[in-house]
């Protein structure tokens, strides 16, 4: 009876913790969306900001955030996945790999402001690119690599050994086993890591203040010349993201409706992260079914 009572109490406690976490999340989302819902109009989402009068939007900032996300993931995903495969399947268990794991842990604990200063020194100053999307993407790659490496390594290591041994028994090479057996089975964990890294890209502001900048040129969205300073696809132009814009509007206080703009931008940022997470999970599930012929 005592064991049953303890088990029942533990169940209630853990259930209460889960409910508390959900309640905090729902309350936070509800507060942000309630305050910013009135600003979610087509003009606000598509028009550029106006710091001298009320009524500006966040169109270029939203595009910059999405474009920066694409650039960052194009750089960090192959590097993180490749490093995770190496650490899980190819790296010997010696002092060198232990040092690599220690470096990854230290790198993951660096404050974002430190990563931003490193990006300012290396990607902005030493390369001569100045404040640009590429500088911000490389700084965020440094920020996200430890997370992607550890999650990719853990996801591959958690694949049952019987699957790998069965592949070897059929005479399949190690690389083919990694590509056709381990990666498809580890795909849900890798997708989760990519989603977490993407969320950090959307919400990061401190590192981008020193790398991508706090201003954007007047973009011409029908200009597809990558060398043009007004082209939205130019990766070497300065770009103010949505998170940086929220910080800038609140701190400078130049816009008459600064609070409304910040609330609306925060609501758009939350909705963008939510929609991206749902879309990424749907794509990961679809790809997992295509690669493994397993229904989940």
Automatic annotation (TrEMBL):
Keywords: Cell membrane, Membrane, Transmembrane, Transmembrane helix, Transport. InterPro entries: MetI-like (IPR000515), MetI-like_sf (IPR035906), Phosphate_PstA (IPR005672). Its main location: membrane. It holds the Pfam family BPD_transp_1. It is found in: Cell membrane. It comes from the Bacteria. Residues 62-280 form the ABC transmembrane type-1 domain. The keyword Iron-sulfur does not apply. One of its GO terms (cellular component) is plasma membrane. Gene3D superfamilies: MetI-like. One of its GO terms (biological process) is phosphate ion transmembrane transport. CDD domains: TM_PBP2 (cd06261). It is a multi-pass membrane protein. One of its GO terms (molecular function) is phosphate transmembrane transporter activity. The chain crosses the membrane at residues 12-33, 66-88, 100-123, 129-149, 178-199, 265-288. Belongs to the binding-protein-dependent transport system permease family. CysTW subfamily. This is Phosphate transport system permease protein PstA. It comes from Brevibacillus fulvus.
